[in-house]
Amino acid sequence: MAKVLIFIEHAHGKLPKTSLVAIAAGLEIAKKQGLDTAAVVLGKGVDAVAAEAAAHGVGKVIAIDDAKLEHCVADLYAKAVAGCAKQLGSTWVVGAATAAGKDFFPRVAQLLDAGMASDITGLNDDGSIVRPTYAGNVMSTVSIETPVKVVTVRGTAFDPAPKAASAAAVEKAALPADATGRMRFVSFNETKSDRPALTDAAIVVSGGRGLKSGENFTTVLEPLVDVLGAAMGASRAAVDAGFVPNDLQVGQTGKVVAPQLYVAVGISGAIQHLAGMKDSKVIVAINKDGDAPIFNVSDYGLVADLFKAVPEMADEVKKIKAH
Amino acid sequence: MKILVPIKRVPDPQTNIAVKPDGSGIVTDNVKFVINPFCEIALEEALRVKEQQGGAEVVLVSIGPKVTQEQLRTGLAMGADRAMLVVAEEELDPATAATVLKKIVEAESPDLVLAGKQSIDDDANQVGQILASSLDWPQATFASKVEFSADKKEVTVTREVDGGLEQVAFALPGIVTTDLRLNEPRYASLPGIMKARKKELKEVPLADYGVAGAAKVKTHKMAPPPKRSAGRKVETVQELVGLLHTEAKLI
What pLDDT score does A1 carry? Predict the structure, then answer.
């Protein structure tokens, strides 16, 4: 019996913060509804990640280890997760609102004839759900009307599930025979970086169109990013202009982040960018236009030429860190 | 090749959205409505495929109030061949919209459905995937590049995913949903607008699809998000870093 099934995404043999947030949301649903939990891990060679998932408070872990699951291909993954939910009699299926979760969870919902709420940020005691709509300008309260309910969870909405006192059991399961797909994985061009992932980082420094070129991201912004030990992000304008790769985009249609410190450099603060970072604990804005909307949400605003201010800031931070 | 492009009428993304005081919806007075930007990118891609391949037909479909004719006319003016409007005065949840689209796909038998990854009102990001699953079709979401094999039977799609770019391939029919950087949609030309007046725009009542009461998700209330207030302006970088160190204790 496991009524709340939590899908565990993993990368490079580890659980990203978003998966721990999905566990936290699943545990909260289970607590509110008086249900038990299970996590499901899919992939090739998943023993380590299954063990890690088992350490964070779930009732048990189902691990499906199959070469066909090496890459997250939507039709196959949806069938595997839906099959698992059916077998366990799950009434809730929970995943993270990551690129993968957004991609295949609606298929899970369809296969289970379930309603789905995307990118949820809150759970009410009456079973209703809160999720942002209209690029974060509206918080909608919704209810899922079907016996089985599927949700993806915004990575900033819950504190990651901490380690539990004891680890749950890991059960191996086989990919159901009827789980076949018509999609073929071709390649993955990973953006290599030694910096923390955007959605995991305690500090994020993002650049906008004000940086003027991709080269300036490297020469002007990166020294500040690195002295702060931060992740680097960007506005949609900067990504659209080709300054940096798409996976750095922070905003409603990109990544949603809520770090301890968010530094917006040369970003005007379009609605859709604010939707991706306004839950950050402390926001710093550096922009030469004192009327830019980013200053309406920033805790500390500096009206200055970024090409002068950013190198200065890197130097100041270095001085403090040297003490 | 036949390409079906579902589009949605949404408030202009540049609009400041306000919630009605009673929480029943958003204020729509004086709000301009447009084709959802991701749907517009899907239409542009369909038109490019048509131009490259010749002989392709681009069919637009929308589910929405009668005024959605405006957005369909715009799409026809951009170059779509014909359009269909399922007249629905109230908003459908993603699963119901996908059920209607499934019936249209079964009637039209397109080789490819090109859709936006999400609409910028409900931000659900579900319809394309649910539609694909209900047909047991392959899908490629968040597309930034779409390439066809020489025989046009297979498509390879570059997808914007966490940590980089992924490529998937599948044999048609299938569904592709678009991300922002797939293309830059064209504007309707004046001759295009003239031609669009004569193109077919068929209206069908929602009742024909038998989806009454089928909503799987219901919206009960809308509220503005908690407001974040502006903090202070600082004069110098030294002051800024000092405050981050001593007051915010983040450095």
Answer: 60
